[in-house]
Amino acid sequence: MKLGHYYPRATGPHSGVTAGIAAWTTALLDANQDIVVLHDGAPDTDRYGAAELRPVRHVGKGRPSRVPVGMADAVRDLDVLVLHEAWFAANPAAALAARRAGVPYVVVPHGVFEPTWVSYLKQPRTPRQAVERAVLRGAAAAHVWFPREAEHVHRIEPSVRCVVAPPGFDVPAEQWRPGGDYLAWYGRYAVTNKGLDVLLRALATIPASSRPPLRLHGVDYEGGLARTKNLVSELNITRWVDVGGPIWGDDKRDFVLNSAGFVHPSRWDCIPIAVAENLALGVPCLVSDAINLAPDLAADGAATVSGLGIAEFSAALASFPERGEEHANAGRRFVAKRLSWGEIMPGYLRNLADVVRESGARCGRAR
Questions:
Q1: CA dist., res. 43 & res. 296, Å (int)
Q2: Mean pLDDT to the nearest integer, 170-191
Q3: Does 191 share its domain with 248?
Q4: Listed residue (182, 201, 183) closest to 191, CA to CA
Q5: Shared domain check, 112 and 123
């Protein structure tokens, strides 16, 4: 099967979306699928391995209004086009081009139909939701990563078929060992979305004598790095909190392996890649109950799960370092059982083949 993954900024800066596309691309290549990554012509990147990088000309100013030109010709050789994320003009234009070319398309929302996320949209929301509803209505399917996300998609368009398959993760040989004296966080300094305000306010309510040190590393997002530093200062917790820049590769792995645990207080997250990475390493995780993984993590005892009220999260934060060892092996078992590519990919490919075949039958196109 020849799949095309389309995201205008696919070759741009690292993000959760590009990380997700890269993970699926690598796994699909390993499963002997033919993969094309379509993008807006930004400099090439090696994050997609042996996949073909196919630039498409775009016009327009800024992400909300920038659209592809000549997209129908660019996708005509594909069996299926995969559209990533939502709420910007490029995807509806790509969906229309795919229909003109007779190519079925699948939408991967990356969690952006979650009600809290939708509430962040600028007004007017009604016409924007109408556009996304039309894109979903014309889709062969929506590929969601957890059942809860399917519910969010169906709030936008009830009729769309959902294929449920999360990204997979490997369990590496390296494994966390107790002994770290700080809590770790890394990600994007999107203060509200990532719940960094909750984390810092909860930390500040713990008595100074028992307050655990916290180290943060990440990329700036709309001034979130400065906002985080300012909040640390306002709460008078600079002695306990280190706010740093991004870390990658071995430095990131050493950072969490040497910690007492990883904290992830997000208000929403389709799949928190950072949490899955840490679970696979056996790093104890404290997560909010708002993320899609939370119910399964709680059921398997694979992480500490807390609500986002300041008092509740503060209590969880204070006791979390003592609970590390009970979660370490459970987290690795969780990834091996629920987030293994070996378990995920066969079912995903069967479902995708069904979607493509049924869509081809409806439009009378033999693939």
A1: 39
A2: 93
A3: yes
A4: 201
A5: yes
Both 334 and 347 in one domain: the answer is no
Cα 33 from Cα 29, distance rounded (Å): 5
16-39 confidence digits (pLDDT tens): 899 899 999 999 999 999 999 999
Residue pLDDT, tens place only, 113-135 = 988 888 888 888 899 999 999 99
> Which token pair is 250?
């071995």
Q: Enumerate residues 6+ apart whose C-beta is below 8 A from 123.
A: none
pTM score: 0.83
Helix H segments across the chain? 16-30, 71-75, 90-101, 115-119, 125-138, 147-156, 196-205, 224-234, 249-257, 273-281, 294-300, 310-319, 324-338, 341-363
- Determine the Cα angle at 197 with ends 12 and 183, to 5°: 85
Q: Residues with Cβ < 8 Å from 230, sequence gap 6 or more? A: none
Q: How many domains does the chain have?
A: 2
Task: Kindly give the pairing relationship between strand 214-220 and strand 183-189.
Answer: parallel
- What letters, b where the CB count within 10 A reaches 16 and e where it falls short, cover 209-221? eebbbbbbbbbeb
**Domain encompassing residue 219:** 183-338
- Render 243-280 in DSSP notation, one character per residue: EE----HHHHHHHHHTSSEEEE--S--SS-HHHHHHHH
Give the pLDDT confidence of 301-325 residue by residue, as tens digits: 999 999 999 999 999 999 898 877 7
| CATH code of the domain in which 226 resides | 3.40.50.2000
Q: How far is CA 60 from CA 63, 67, 145, in A?
A: 8, 6, 31
Closest of 141, 135, 40 to residue 95, by C-alpha: 135
